[in-house]
Amino acid sequence: MTLRLRDSLSLPGNSSKANEDAFAHGPAGAVVFDGATGLGEPLLPGTSDAAWVARFGARRLMAHLEAGLSGAKAVDAALRDAAHSFVGLARRPPQETWEMPFASMMFCVGVEGGIEAHWFGDCAAVIAAPGGDAFIVGEALASKGAERERVAQLAAQSGIAPTSGPGRAEFLPALRQARNRVNKADGYFLFGPDEAALGQARVRRLDLAPGSRILLASDGFLALVSDYGRYSLNALIDRAGEGLAELGAELRAIEQTDPDGRAFPRFKQSDDATALFLEFA
Question: By C-alpha distance, which of 197, 194, 196, 199 is closest to 87?
């Protein structure tokens, strides 16, 4: 089965900073990564550890898939690659988990009669069969609701605008505490240079009819549904077929009307936003 790329988009949230999203695609599969914003000084060369783990993960995942590995084995092989490379590149070992780079991921692999979705965190896939209603794979909508509540609470406690950014000293203790739970049994799992995540990706097998549409997206793009309520899932995937660039422009226009995040609580005025529009053939 083939996943045919119809359109792609990846917008940085801030033009002066690295885009910490990444994507890759081929006939056998496609993936979107969303690097988690760093909460301290970088440990790796370059401007952003989050950008490194997203780009590295996308490259290695597709390389392993194209080499013939199954989706699950490709994910675990890419995790091992990231762990090995991080040890060689880091200027010092991390002392706490929050110092490590992590990323959310949605990886879809074509299989006989459909796709297999593998994911970490809040990247998602919106899928619609011909003539059918769209549905979402992943936890993006639920997790965004929880994040809005946390942003609003932290901002109210600190007396600063929600969009002051996750790097603000007022926000850092709570964010670091949450990040320390990554890849722990009592926490949540993300892609990163940490073999504790081996075998922990969520997996769902879906039977699809030819012509089904698939929108892979980071949570920054899905804010059009989850945060801003501009589109339903059906309307979003229909509009995606008309062009992702127009949706990206609409997303940024909404955010510019609420720069402080008072109407739509969030940590940044604009997050990185990435989407792939695919057809199952």
Answer: 194
